[in-house]
Design goal:
The chain has one domain: Arginase, Chain A (3-Layer(aba) Sandwich). Helix content is 33%, strand content 17%. It has nine helices and nine strands. It has a seven-stranded mixed beta sheet. A two-stranded antiparallel ribbon has the order 8-9. Helix 1 packs antiparallel against helix 3 and helix 1 runs parallel beside helix 4.
Length: 245
Amino acid sequence: MELALFAEHRFAFFFWAKWTRKLFSQDRIGAPPALVTLDWHQDLAWPTKSEKSWLRKLDLSSNQDVSLYSWGSLSPINDTHIMAAAYLNLIGNIYVHCRQGDSDDRWEDKKFKDRYGNVHLVKKFKGYDAREAYLIQAEESNVYFDIDLDFFTIQNPLNGKGKNFTYLKNEIIKKMLRVNRPLIQWIFQRLCGFTIATEPEHTGGLSRSNRLLELINKIYFSPSLFSNYIEQWKRSCHWKHLPCV
């Protein structure tokens, strides 16, 4: 199981493509993992006719082609990567806990048909408790966990909310993400990959983004992500809730 860390959220597409291809090649899954994401934005722009054509031509077996597509062809405002991945059946059902959505229809459940005819549920949640209650009853076997750090902002001037950045309190974030939380246990029992977008511009700057990342680092990893020499990473850093092997 891998963790991927990057600045702009659209680069998650590369890792979902890589991981799903590997999981299928190893016969570890029968369907792509569901996506459970935390994000200020919904990031659910459906692919246009032209984008669908580009996606159908994309060589998923080439990491180079997929990385270039993630960088150059997915929207630079980082709102097309989820549905692009769904269109190629790289992810399954989609569960988004977000803050964006000024009208009721923005919160309605949707169903999306991919290029192969598979139907993906797209479900959005305004609150953590509702998401937890729903997901721990959901029949999902595999999950990608995805966090955009701007989720932890409340007022966010770049998103049209307020004049200054405000943030969830650290204790609220820790309570939400702690490993003994029922939803987090549910996710980790099914986890196939973990993506984190730092998005420093949308979190109030690099320093604030790094502080939010450090909270996650302390909650889940010991001693720290990427500690010591890279060739020793697997020995020097491990998930806190799993034994170090």
